[in-house]
Known about the structure:
HistidinolP_aminotransfase; Aspartate Aminotransferase, domain 2; 7-stranded mixed beta sheet; pyridoxal phosphate; 14% strand
Amino acid sequence: MQPRDLSDHVAYEAGRGIEEVARELDRDPSEFVKLASNENPHGPSPAAAVAIRETASNVSSYPKAAHADLTAAIAEQWDVDDEQVWLANGGDGAIDYLSRAVLEPGDDVLVPAPGFAYYGMSARFHHGDVREYELSKADDFAQDAATVLESYDGDRMVYLTSPHNPTGSTIPLEDVAEIAERTDDETLVVVDEAYGEFADRDSALALIEGRNGFEARDDVAVLRTFSKAYGLAGIRLGYAVVPEEWGDAYARVNTPFAASELACRAGLAAIDDDEHVERTVGTARESRAYMREHLEAPVWESEGNFVLVDVGDAERVAEEAQRRGVIVRDCTSFGLPECIRITCGTEEETERAVETVNAVLAEVDSGAESESDPDSQEVTDA
Ligand SMILES: *Cc1c(COP(=O)(O)O)cnc(C)c1O
């Protein structure tokens, strides 16, 4: 037999790992620093690491209490009902739950381009069709209501990413509200805040709950993850916060025990470790400012734990940087073959990345001609 027709489906391209690269180049993993997947340079919250060790002997049981406890802790953090918190196997899992809850076969889903690949993947898994709105490089990937609404055509779901991966741009809540208001009642606006902790912006939760002067809405959902600021990417833990009106749909769409005992215990410990998150966010801010100032190429302003850099030939620069021990993300798969994305590392990692990428750029410039678009040299501070 064969699986169903998957020709429309594409495999997710993750950033490359140290082990993988070291093996391929036949080098020692310790020679490399990985700044390709927006992981936390400080590792997990130490409290979460302790919780994981302490939970080891309990993993023969299904995660019932832990699941309920973490849901309650997150609900308390955001001051919402427990039912509104949809725990999942990573933010990606939460995207799937929203797809399951909302999409009928043939429904359209509007996603940003460039953008996070999993929105479209999940839509297709659930027999939806994917449409795109474009964030323009000439406009520094600015996000606003007009850009999205111009492409909107009655889509059942609209994805916004704020801060946006891979560009680092954000969208004001007023614009999110306008999009939700001007799209159909049956259109769900999903605001992916995977990098929300790194930005100086209020969560779009204000729109769901009717806070900060916004009217309460039942057509917005917010996505959050423990993978980035909390440093728990390997445990796979994320969640959606949805309006109270349909929060009970979770029970009918979730995979039983959506998050593991280890994940829930780690999450419970991490959520109380403010110090770790603050340190992580502080490091990201310093790192992205340093990269913007010192990289010898246009760097967009970012509110995430990464920066997008216009290097002309991403594949070549990423490969050469990798040969020198710095793994960055070639953004060709995002539709930006001239850009690399560099994750904010520790001070030492950031300095090494800047030094390495600058050296590679100098070499590429003095060697074969660069294919860089001259317009791209004019990235502004906006
Ligand atoms: C990392 C990321 C996520 C979620 O990742 P998980 O590891 O599955 O939690 C979601 N959206 C964007 C834009 C991301 O970059």
